[in-house]
Amino acid sequence: MACLRFDLQRSLPLYLDRAASPATVERIERHLLGCGECRARLVRLRDAKNLLGELPRLDAPNFERLMARPAARAPRVSWSIPPLLRHFAADALVASGLFVAFTFLYTHTASARNRTFDASSFRRVAVRDVAATHDPHVIVQGVVSDFVGDAGEGSHRFRLTDPNDPGHFVVCEVLDGTLRPPKTGARIRVWGVSRYDSNPDHEWFEIHPVMKVEVLQ
Hints:
- The chain has helices at 6-9, 12-16, 22-32, 36-54, 63-68, 83-113, and strands spanning 123-124, 137-148, 155-162, 165-175, 187-197, 204-215.
- It is α/β, with parallel strands linked by helices.
- The protein folds into two domains: 1-54 and 99-118, no CATH class; 123-215, CATH 2.40.50.140.
- Strand 3 and strand 4 (165-175) form a beta hairpin.
- The model is unreliable at 104-115 (pLDDT under 50).
């Protein structure tokens, strides 16, 4: 079923440009946990942004020359609707729109509670390659080395290191109440959103939020 969280979808470009507020980022990432359609939409937006960045720049046409051209005017057709009928039609249209929107939103919210995790849009990436990937949804495997910060911000952070090269790591963040943080020393595989945290106290590449954790034998 189509996702009706248009308020979050409008903020996805800001999320990609890292210009969204922290509260908006948290709402978007919590929504991404259960919405495969918005995860796919985010992938398409990022691909389009990367493609636009590779296109050559073109010089804009002269503005004054464009404004000097006479605009062709289409013939006007004069007709009017009685005021009473116009107000009635507007009220009926608004009422119908609200009813349809409420119905779809209610059914979508109810179905989202039972939605299973969809891993089809995730790609395997090595810990050392997270910094270079443009894929927003990745699968990364490594060893939990230690925890970063505390849970006072509503989340749990831990370092996931490359078992073959402990110098390479990525910070993983588990939103409070969604998953249980793994134990230090555990060998795990995580599914999540790759991003760079430019906070002066952080400045690291991270997987935030972590959507799934699998402990490996």
